[in-house]
Amino acid sequence: MVQHGFLVDGEWISRGTPVQILSPYDSTVVGETFQATPADLDRAIAAAVCSFEETRHLPAAERKRVLLAVADGISRSKEDFARMIALEAGKPMKAARVEVERAIFTFTLAAEESTRNTDEHLSLAGNPERSGLVRRFPIGPIAAITPFNFPLNLVAHKLAPAMAVGCTVVLKPAPQTPITALMLARIIHDAGWPAGALNVLPLANEDAAAMVADDRLKMLSFTGSAKVGWELKAKSGKKRVVLELGGNAAVIVHSDADIAEAATRCAFGGFTYAGQSCISVQRIFVEQSKYQQFLDTLVPKVRALKCGDPLDETVDVGPLIRESDAERIENWISEAVSAGAKLLCVGKRTLNRRFIEPAVLTHTKPNQRVNSEEIFGPVVTVEPYRDFDEALKLVNDSRYGLQAGIFTNAPDLIARAFDELEVGGVIVNDVPTFRSDQMPYGGVKDSGLGREGVRYAMEEMTDLKVLVTKTS
User: Measured between alpha carbons, how far is 156 from 301 in angstroms, rounded to an integer?
Assistant: First the structure.
């Protein structure tokens, strides 16, 4: 078992109430940290405010040096990070390794972006004697709250852009996965980032509310559930707020698509990491003429997925993070079946009751919770559509709008989907689960506010200021 203190104002604190972190796979203790107190949080915020006066003036070359050192530090500890992600989050090793590689890329990309000159020179029409210069300045100390499902790379998406622009951060990692975040904090600390510029505290949710309300923190960056995100926004006062929330991501499979490829990608996108991703495939709409062919191709691929120990290199689907989530998902499946849906795969709790065997449902209704809510589990629904207009309406019939996928080779249909789908991103000939870390990433409707992706997060973390000079 590993023990990690938490980081406040450059000090590693190992005191107070111990918190044991349990594996969602078998409930064994995988590590221990300590519960931060409201006093620790107040000290962390004060440190972030004080340190901002240093980080905002750090030369771009120094910010780049630190970011590259962090990327190198993660790279030298790849297996340690992957194993901890598998242990803490229950993510299968092959998926955990992908997350580690993405985090390395995220910090490397932030290093590159940190030295790009974004000054904009303005020609002020009608005022030839004046010139304008627009520049971005760091907004100030940031409150960051991250979820359990990507305990390294989603933390990286808060910290790397903030470091690139010179902002300081107070971070609350997910209570299920704090050790991965603390391992990253150690690397950032050792890379020479100023003391107090990063503070990482395992906090009780009720204590973390002070982060949201405190006016000393100028921005809230939150990734998590829609319910919690919008509640936090209501309490955030004058802060800038970026919310990356949930979704019930949809896929359209048109008749001209490569059905085998579409089914293969949907089997991946709906069930990787047990569907615990906000862009996991949840709703699949297939043109009527290819509907049965798609099902006949998809179902065997889903049945072939292996559930089990996340440390097993051959496992595809690990446990749900909480037993209550497995129970909820099983109830939603039973509710749909009782109302007439057909279950084409098992979809029952298994192993230690935290597993849901991958499920494919048909003959569902839009208002059933397996469609209308974010299931956040290894479940997809597959329904036919008559024409493309209907497909677009089916996708948009949701309070969420994060990303959608469309399988077709028709340029006019792609253009219509891009124009009409109410989402933050449209992925062509792939599933909405696709994300590259330089993309602008975020949603509309209940799926969030603002955008992540390194350069776009940097814009959210800065304010524009204009300098107007009279030249004559």
Answer: 33
Q: Which of 127, 236, 229, 160 is nearest to 469 (CA)?
A: 127
CA atoms 308, 309, 310, 314: torsion sign: negative
- At 435-463, the pLDDT tens digits run 999 999 999 999 999 999 999 999 999 99
- CATH at 19: 3.40.605.10
Of 99, 167, 266, 278, which residue is the catalytic one? 278
Q: Is there a single domain that holds both residue 225 and residue 314?
A: no
> How many distinct structural domains can be found in the chain?
2
Give the β-pairing of 359-362 and 403-407: unpaired
Residue 50, domain extent: 2-245+447-469
pTM above 0.90, yes or no: yes
- Burial of residue 165 (number of CB atoms within 10 Å: 0-12, 13-18, 19+): buried
CA distance 198 to 72: 18
Q: Which of 88, 99, 113, 244 is catalytic?
A: 244
pLDDT bucket at 348, cuts 50 / 70 / 90: confident
| 373 catalytic per annotation | no
112 among known catalytic residues: no
